[in-house]
Amino acid sequence: MSLPELDLQIIYARIAWGLIAASMLLSVLPTLLPKIFPQLAQRHKAIVTTTVAVVMLLPGEASPAYWLTLVFQYPSGLLTGYSLVALLARWRERPVIFPLHPAFALLLTVTGVVLYLDAFGVLALGLYYRGFDSGAATVLTCVAAVAGAAAVLFRYAGTAGMALLTSVLLFSLLRLPSGNLWDALLDPLLWAWALGSVILEVRRRHALRKAAQLENMEEPAPELLQARTAAEQ
């Protein structure tokens, strides 16, 4: 079992929480800053990113990253990867879709449920501890790397693929964030985001199905159309 150095974890926490905070702020502030400070409209991305970086790099308890790590532990490499990809997209003025890809969100949601039930002793499978095992972790890391590369190559959930590759690289090269593969792929915040994405997708599909049913009810049946045509003739 190989664990990362504590100093490396502290540096990772500062950078990761900075990326997460910057990507979240840039999803909200572009609509607010131009109204409050019109002169900053063209520079808001640089201002937000620089401010977050400076604040996160403050020493000890003065840094928000210190308290965020105490509450949420280290963010997963996957969440960090998502934040990095979203931040780069917003920097290039490209649209960023808030919900995760439905298939990927469902996979993360189900995986999180199984892991949390296992951690609470409901299933007692010992899955989390296998994330430290070199054999099982190596196989799963290879599978995740291939899946991420395929998603990017075939342009199917490309954002998820790039984020997944980022998390795999962080774990493979630096053993971040904790030396456990599951911590590199999932954390409570990411699981809540995935669950929310699944709920939104279910609601969207339900609304589409309901709209289609209403359209079918409004359209007269072929037999009625034929009867009306015959009566008019």
Quick overview of this protein structure:
This protein has 233 residues and is mostly helical. The chain has twelve helices and no strands.
Question: Can you characterise this structure?
Answer:
This protein is an all-alpha fold. It has one domain (6-221). Helices cover 72% and strands 0% of the residues. It has 12 helices and no strands. It has helices spanning 6-26, 33-36, 44-56, 64-72, 77-91, 102-119, 127-130, 134-153, 158-174, 181-185, 188-218, 222-232. The chain is globular, with a radius of gyration of 23 Å. The termini are far apart.
Q: DSSP strand (E) fraction?
A: under 5%
Specify the biggest β-sheet.
none
Task: Categorize the overall geometry.
Answer: globular
The total domain count is: 1
Terminal CA distance reads: 85 Å
Tally of helical runs: 12
| Share of residues in helices | over 70%
> What's the gyration radius in Å?
23 Å
Secondary-structure content class: mainly alpha
